[in-house]
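Why predict the complex rather than its parts? Because the way molecules touch one another can change local conformation, and only a joint prediction can capture that. The input here totals 1164 residues.
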Amino acid sequence: MTVYLVRRLLQALLVVLAMSVIVFVGVYAIGDPVEILISPDADQLERERAVVALGLDLPLWQQYLVFLTKALQGDLGNSFVFNEPALKLILQRMPATLELAFGAMFLSILVGLPLGLYAGLRPDSPVSKGIMAGSILGFSLPTFWVGLMLIMVFAVQLGWLPSTGRGDTASLLGLQWSFLTIDGLSHMAMPALNLALFKISLVIRLTRAGVRETMLMDYVKFARAKGLSPARVTFVHVFKNILIPVVTVVGLELGSTIAFSVVTESVFAWPGMGKLIIDSINVLDRPVIVAYLMIIVLMFITINLIVDLTYSLLDPRVRLESKGT
Amino acid sequence: MSDATANGTAPATPRKDKVETPFRRFVSEFCESKVAIGGLIVFTAIALIAIFAPWITPQNPYDLAQLDIMDGRQEPGTTGGAGFTFWLGTDDQGRDMMSGIMYGLRISLTVGAGSALIACLVGASLGLLAAYAGGRTDSAIMRLVDLQLSFPSILVALMILAFLGKGIMNVVIALVIVEWAYYARTVRGTALVERRREYIEAAQCLALPTHRILFRHLLPNCLPPLIVVATMQVARAIALEATLSFLGLGVPITEPSLGLLIANGYEYMLSGKYWISFYPGIALLVTIVSINLVGDQLRDVLNPRLKK
Amino acid sequence: MKTTRRRHLAAATAVAAGIAFVATGAAAQTMTMAVGAPVTSLDPHYHQLSPNNAIADTIFDRLINEDHRSRNQPGLATEWRAVAPTVWEFRLRPNVRFHNGNAFTADDVAFTLQRLPNVPNSPSSFAVYFRPIARIEIVDPLTIRFHTHQPYPLLPLDMTNVRIVDKETVENATTADFNDVRAAQGTGPYRVVTHRNGDRIELERNDTYWGERPGFQRVSYRMITNDAARTAALLAGDVEFIDQVPTTDLAKLRADNRVRLSETLGLRLIFLGLDHQRAPGENSPFVTDNNGQPLGRNPLRDVRVRRALNMAIDRNAIVSRVMEGAAAPAGQFLPEGVFGHVPGLGAPAYDPDGARRLLAEAGYPQGFRIQLNSPNDRYINDSRISQAIGQMWTRIGVRTAVEAQPWATFIGRASRIEYSTFLIGWGSNPDGSHPLRNIIGTYSRERGWGASNRGRYSNPQVDALLEQSLTELDNEKRERLLIDAMRMAMEDVAVIPLHIQANIWAMRRNLEHTARNDELTRAQDVRPAAR
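Output of the joint prediction:
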């Protein structure tokens, strides 16, 4: 087990390294940060000064070495735009994104699992067909468009919910959270729903597919034949089996929810790190892009590890150490 | 035991004990759902419209010389300077929305189907390989998946489109790079469970060649989740293309896809010019829903474990 | 240690202020405004960027302020004049205090100017405004003199770009200290209470402000970068004031009796740059003949071709159809009433037949193919304008492909002179020398000219006039030189001017706003509406 963990960690390190190289080359290929950040009326001298100030006068590989040396000391560099440590900027924005992502995951399980279960158990009822049709709509609509429609309907037309922003926050563990205040929650409702829409559909479909398959399995048939109550069959035998794919996908999707909250955050002006990254990409703020991606990569690796561990707990047939034959 | 063997071979090898061919069997099972037939008909119609768009539209919406901004933002039913009627109105450039949607369907379908197909091929092969080979290969592939999934698609697209420039092919490449990892992970997850089952062990005991075990025994049993993912990914690819266009990274602005038409029009939603965004949105929705209806039924039919 | 104590003190003050606010319970005293471009720092000398300058104007003052028409107004200086060809003298406003109570004196001015080139890691510094100054002389606490290297008529203009900070507070402060509010102590109409980076800035009235009393007890200055979301927030009543109103929402907002608009013509020209770099006998990167083969020459070096392209554009159609009226067709950089505006030089008339004749005359009776490059996220309706121009050029036989890209990708390539023709904008300072020097003047590192001349236009006669104007202290003569230079460049079609944008703000009915032509969105320009 320990060997396994150590190996995964080493692999993670390699991934982070590879990623930072790609980002360096990628940002270099996209454009020149100084061209974007500099005031248009700056003269040539001022442009040269800015290039030096941001450390962009060195050849790319030297810039990368400088970055690596500093990174090993825990310094991921200062944002070109804000002149503050990139890590600090991201950590400041992280709670906002995390609570949005968890809110969305929570919603998707809360709504998706029961609906999927129902649709799986009664595949031919009209309600199930309605649920499935709804789930198709759920992932057919582009996020940005749904977000805007939500604002149009619930904020502008009906005036029930605030249109944008994060609202009041309360402090917990030294960080600011919206979900602790009523106002914050009302601000969170629409963006969380917007972000959750796709996941809800996903959970519904996965659950339904899982239930339908499992119901035909011999052990379920056997359990039924034994005269166990339908509720027990459903919630113990079936449920346990369908949890595996759902856990995998939900786990995977948590990472991608965080990584892809970009669109939702920019439509709802939610001050999270998704918005920070899209703003940073727009001005090629490389230190922030690199630091953000490093955090995301680490997060993914952790999530995948947890998913793999959960796998082995839920399904003893999958063993971690078993590689090859 | 006999059940497991039947599972393993059912979809791949022809059944000799039945008179009907597997294809006929497949067709008749598919036709059990009227909704799915409806979906197939609608999708076929859409595909035909997309293919024959250049011959049936009153305007070539990609030819700037045929557009006139003086015809811009006309309501549905208005007749423009060129003498034909804009049944679905025009966008800000004076582009006939009906022609624009028909041409846009071509691009959205090409992008969606093309990227999903390629990503599925690449992803499923790698996922199978990872699950079957295990060890170093597995780790290498899965870390690549981690790497891939950790990049926001927008950043990947921005980089690729910066390297390659805009264009339909480049969008497809970007989408493949964004999506292959989903297939790989899904297939690996299922295959890890499947390869411990008896029928694979049986196949291994028979010393069948690896590629035969991979593609004829393991893959068919990994299909159900793969099809769930694939149908969703076609939809997702089309929606993602729309999002990329929304962010200004997709297809060229003078050759809009459905997504770009929606993105162009959504700024006009607040001012009541609904048709610029609404009709392409409906077209997108109908397309995706019909694909999904077909995909749903396909999954039920193809799933060996749902066989009664 | 000292820092911590000060921070505690600041926090205590903020809390006290908060309690006072709650006690009076005047909800109407708080105004919430949303801006479209994020403020990147509260340090007024860190990043030369409009949103930063706007918030800096709210917190700090300049020696010379500009009114809404960009005319110079006494700010922290009450009068200024050139006492010798190379000496400018400024008399400072007495009895002004910074937000922290420190008195404002000539020391603060001298310190501020010396700080300009020394802000670490600045991505775009204010150093240019210090460079012409050879020596600063403090005559008395309220009189200061700037000795320049050579006669320098633009010094007052430069001073309208510099916000004055408190020497005592800022001497050992970094940009981060400004962002933590501690160092952001100005003399301006509002003081900062809290700053949430990229999200919002909470402001409070400076009750001892020397100028007109600010309209609100508290102002919440928020950043909502998505255009549609910003409009929606205004309509939903979540914010009471927004800037950068998208032209697509204008019709709707004009018809809505809950809101009002405030608008004025700005100083930003949208224009097309043309490739002057490739010699007449060379290929321009994105110009080909009608079969897509290289042309073997650069048609853009022929003034007849440039005139044809210029005449082929129907500016009125672009302004009315694409910009929905929120712009004015232009034939030069500056609008009427601004120093250096060329009188009588209107927008070129739309004449497609004349354009075709000129093309034939230049040897292109069948036209040619060209690609117009454009950003799609930078200027109002940028990619829409480019497509409209594509239509118009295609109609005179110049088949145009339009490629719109995000600014991040576009600008790097434009600066490497990779395009044949491209759409770009220029926000001028209110002085004719500004666009001439940056866009029209021959690219030269030594002189610091043409840094934004991305077509590499070069005309020795224009350069000579500009050169002369830069040391001419007599404003009348100086303006004549600038007008002549600009007229010459425009007749030569150095660039193709399209239109000057209007700046538009929207607010709830209970507010009033003074629209500024420099695009700055400042809290002090918003007031409760007179009933």
